[in-house]
Amino acid sequence: MSPPREIDTALVARLVSDQFPQWSDLTVTPVEPGGWCNCTFRLGADMVARLPRAERYVAQVAKEQRWLPVLASALPLPIPQPLAQGHAGRGYPWSWSVYRWIEGEPAIQARIADLPAFAADVAGFLRALWQADTIGGPAPGAHNFHRGGSLAVYDAETHQALEALGNRIDRPAAAVAWDAALASRQDGRPVWVHGDLSAGNLLVREGRLAAVIDFGNMAVGDPACDLALAWTFLDRQGRRAFLDALAPDAGTLARARGWVLWKALIVLAGLPGTNPAEVETARRVLAEVLDEDGPAGA
Q1: Are 44 and 128 in contact, with CB atoms under 8 Å apart?
Q2: Are residues 154 and 142 in contact, defined by beta-carbon separation less than 8 angstroms?
Q3: pLDDT per residue over 74-100, tens digit each?
Q4: What is d(CA 192, CA 126) in angstroms, rounded to the nearest whole number?
Q5: Cα angle: 77, vertex 48, 43; to 5 degrees
Q6: Which terminus of the chain, N or C, has fewer Cβ atoms within 10 Å?
Q7: Nearest by Cα to 47 from 22, 74, 14
């Protein structure tokens, strides 16, 4: 399908009025910061509408509608609660969702009172997620960009990035870490994975973890991808608390580093589909994950 024209408040208001007339009198306002995969709008005081920006994100709508209510009762923190599923209309070509609004602000270190305690709380959430019933859950695939699946899917892309970056990075160390990730194998049972456990998807209230959002990349597979937060957001002390609480085996840790390496390398190399605004973050993350003297090399 063709990509939609501009997704703005006027379009969302018309979609809501057409498809959910009971909410047609509610104010529609953009949520800031905006998402990379979805456009998000407040709908009144208690709801939020999320519309995929591109066709590759559309399959996530039905998946969240199906599985978030199942997972909610197994988890210790609020997650998005689907209220309705919209459909194409008014020039917008895809399905979309309405959720209950969850109060909180995206995690940044300045908002967190105690980073190791925050890290332990995230670890507790992950332990509960990994213990949830997986029967019938979706396997990793294109719908979630293979999160929870095999890193081999991204081997050619990673080597392309390494070649493009050349001596601008510690290429030998990156290649060794990548090879170690590919050589490791998941020994445990497949579990539910969030698939995009970034700081922007962790909501904070009063300095503590309050909710986890955006499960579009969830699947049943290898939990290694959910450990990326150790290097993408946490400092050394927080990283140690996080990894100590989860106690991953050496193979899982190697694959977790692999997920971080892949993303940092393709962003730094400017491969198609990456976000140029993330370059400085990617540079820092790459240095963290290749630091063999710290927890990243443990």
Answers
A1: no
A2: no
A3: 999 999 999 999 999 999 999 999 999
A4: 9
A5: 140
A6: N
A7: 22
